[in-house]
Amino acid sequence: MIVVEDLHKHFGGFHAVDGASLSIAEGSITGLIGPNGAGKTTLFNVIAGVLPPTSGRVTMKGEDITGLPPHELFDKGLLRTFQIAHEFSSMTVRENLMMVPGGQTGETLWNTWFHRARIREEEATLLKRADEVLEFLTIDHLKDEKAGNLSGGQKKLLELGRTMMVDAKIVFLDEVGAGVNRTLLNTIGDAIIRLNKERGYTFVVIEHDMDFIDRLCDPVICMAEGKVLAEGTLAEIKANEHVIEAYLGTGLKNKTVGASA
Amino acid sequence: MDFLNAIVALANFVIIPATVYGSQLALGALGVTLIYGILRFSNFAHGDTMAFGTMVTILITWWFQSMGINFGILPTALLALPFGIAITSLFLLGTDRVVYKFYREKKSEPVIFVIVSLGVMFMMNGIVRFIIGTGDQRFADGERFIISTREFKAMTGLQEGLAIRFTQGITVVTAIIVVAALFYFLNRTRTGKSMRAFSDNEDLALLSGINPERVVMVTWIIVAGLATIAGVLYGLDKTFKPFTYFQLLLPIFASAIVGGLGNPLGAIAGGFVIAFSEVSVTYAFKKVLGYLLPESLEPDSLVQLLSTDYKFAVSFVILIIVLLVKPTGLFKGKSV
To answer: What's in the keyword line of the UniProt record (chain A) (predicted)?
Structure first.
């Protein structure tokens, strides 16, 4: 589905992503793990078009998508969430969700005043969808709350909800579980599995919680220092010597990765 | 009776002019604040955008007048206004395409945009003066009054007269309509919401599939509308002179900053704060006090805090106080 070939992203002399190559299979939930500073988020940013790559190529279903702006990638069904949840703080939760699908009829000045019926119809559909999403995520009681007032975990759910407003093909989740309590994390996990099974979303998940990775992801890709270190099932990754070294340094090889992460 | 006279004098010389001036400033400041909120720079060319829009409207007005087209009792300029807005929109979109887009694609710092807008300002400055000249231009169809001093005196029997010019009434009514439409647009329509979303969180807006170029385009069109309307109303109320419009930049920026840059509600409040301060500080209160105070206490001097020559100093002082005490403005805006 997504193939990344020899991707480099340098910030001055710092090589955040340093020749990463990987491929993501359609219909999979791929985990992306690695110690802090491994270049996971930068990799996401480059794939999602937020940052231009220094060199390398990204293709989606064989089509070159390197360096396309985010809104065009969005139209192709490539979505991402942020490590630190973003939201339109002055809008309500429901309005936040209804912002999502791009290219709505009401988006041009002309249509705003001259195609009111069509817009109303569209908005009604969106409203229904937004309410369904909120119910699915169990935050429907917050729909008229200003998004800026939500808790960190609820904002994460809202991020996930945003991807459900359109028929996404591939969703990049950046630490969707960070700062989220166990119960909420299970809700998020359930949602991801359901979206994967029922709607065929492909997910790429950056996560530090190994139980969460274990529950959802196959395969798992481990990155360190801007390179892909290993790929396989979580058990294989945990057994991989390079990975243990990257996480714990040398000399601690008999400990497992999961316990420390 | 003296008390009523005092109130009428105050209304005639302070309240009505300040309300009218406040409406004009509010419309100007709305344009500045929208650009700041969405395109993220202070547009120094705004005063001259107003001048450009007004100039186009004046030329069309003169053409209409020469062909004998009129708008009944309303000024012909209002009929020319939509055309003025359309041409100014095209002009701003052209400027954006030729100038700002280049820097946007390079993701330049806001301060570079500010300097660029300064350059654009000088260009517009030159264009306007080249086309219409530097002098005063009148384009109202003669003075018309909703109520004139004589009528008012005859009606009420008061010593003091109250005059409301037609253009003053039109200014306030137009401002109310425009502001209502703008707020409806920003809060209720999808286009307006995507503008707010873009202003709130640009990264997220991009990743929600909002097309940034379209948001930018819509912003320029709305700014062209606001600037032209503000400029034409100001010109109808007073006269059109390119240099005056250039000078208006200070009170307009003061209004936007006092209210909180990036906050439309703040821009309106700021406009009225500046207008009322400016008018009341430069008004000679001798007459009003003369009615209110017993004869022995009546002031001999004019009781004028500042000469009208210094009216821009008022905006400047308020601006400095706000920046020192509350940099985010009265309403929560973005810090400057």
So the answer is: ATP-binding, Nucleotide-binding, Transport
